[in-house]
Amino acid sequence: MSNIYLHKLDSFVETVLIPEYTRGGRRRQSADYSRVRAARDRAHRRGDRDTARQLRKQLRGMPSGDPHDPGYRRLQYCRYADDTLLGFIGPKAEAEEIKRRLAAFLRDDLKLELSQHKTLNHARPHPGSAIPRLRNHRAAQRLQGHQGYPAGQRNGQPAGPTPR
Length: 164
Known about the structure:
- Strand 3 and strand 4 (157-158) form a beta hairpin.
- Helices cover 46% and strands 11% of the residues.
- The protein has five helices and four strands, in the order αααββααββ.
- It has helices at 2-21, 31-46, 49-60, 92-108, 134-144; strands at residues 74-80, 83-89, 153-154, 157-158.
- It starts with a helix and ends in a 6-residue tail after the last strand.
- By secondary structure, the chain is mainly α.
- The chain has three domains: 2-23 and 73-108, no CATH class; 26-68; 132-164, no CATH class.
């Protein structure tokens, strides 16, 4: 029943909010990343393998895109039953504006209230984040297996997937 009722929310987010708050095809390249990449390329052309290797390692730890690119915004939406997740890449002020507009839509059109104590305003998807990453959770499940046995074994015999 909630899927039928919340279809209006899906439509509002997909037709109004996402087109309005998503812009830019790609982030512009980070100036620091470009500088290190150019130094790596020069070292590679000179045949200096050690320097090129060190610079390549340094590049792997750097974002290639500019995280503060003013022309790049992304709003993503995911809903499962009555749980909703909106992810926004952009300034916090715009994220707050999206939250206000969403709360107004829920209140005015659907007669629902946005739970303030369940609403996160500023979460980051990294270790220690308030939002668990499903990919990491599934990897931990695969490593542990069922009831502490190594993955793929139960009583010393190969086992199929176990429901959780």
